[in-house]
Amino acid sequence: MANMLTATNTLASYRHLDAADTTVGTSDSTKYPIVDVVAEFPGGMDALVKFLSGNVHYPAEARRAGKQGTVFVAFVVDVDGSIKEPFIVKGISEELDSESLRVVGLFPPWKPARLNETEVASKYVLPIKFKLAGEGKPQKLRRSDWH
Questions:
Q1: Rounded distance, CA 71 to CA 98, Å?
Q2: Considering only CA atoms, which of 13, 6, 30 is closest in space to residue 123?
Q3: Where are the domains of the chain?
Q4: What is the chain's alpha carbon radius of gyration, rounded to the nearest angstrom?
Q5: Rounded to two decimals, what is the model's pTM?
Q6: What is the pLDDT of residues 11-35, one digit of tens each?
Q7: With contact defined as beta carbons under 8 Å apart, do 6 and 141 qualify?
Q8: What is the tens place of the pLDDT at every residue in 46-80?
């Protein structure tokens, strides 16, 4: 099933941390410092787009209802690269939010963030864009949609 989703490679829309903050709190009050090198999906952003393209399915109910937009999913990339504590920062609908969380749960281990040459846990916010083409049909992802 073709669908449209993007994970923009700019700090304006794919945000690791807000530049004004020195730490970001989580539900358990653990703090994640600003890092020297952000966590990375294995193979980089192109591989992330390919993974999302192959695994995100536009939910039929959302498609029928004409729901579209960007779901922002936050999660922690732990020191071992595992994905923990995924949650919706900004959602669209129950169907699209659930699909975004489902796909994040499928992620392989990432390359962890680094601070002072040491691997550290970090928080990551990923936008996943759902966009319908004409007549309720999902659009296919294009690399140019990232910019």
A1: 10
A2: 30
A3: 23-129
A4: 15
A5: 0.73
A6: 223 333 333 333 444 443 356 778 9
A7: yes
A8: 999 999 999 999 999 999 999 999 999 999 999 99
For domain 23-129, give the CATH number: 3.30.2420
Backbone angles phi, psi at 89, to 5 degrees: -85, -45
Look up residue 32 and give its amino acid.
Answer: Y
Q: What is the 3-state secondary structure (H, E, C) of the chain?
A: CCCCCCCCCCCCCCCCCCCCCCEEECCCCCEEECCCECCECCCHHHHHHHHHHHHCCCCHHHHHCCCCEEEEEEEEECCCCCEEEEEEEECCCHHHHHHHHHHHCCCCCCECEEECCEEECEEEEEEEEECECHHHCECCCCHHHHC
Q: Contact, 76 vs 85, CB < 8 A?
A: yes
Length of the chain measured in residues: 147
Query: 102 Cβ partners below 8 Å, 6+ apart?
Result: none
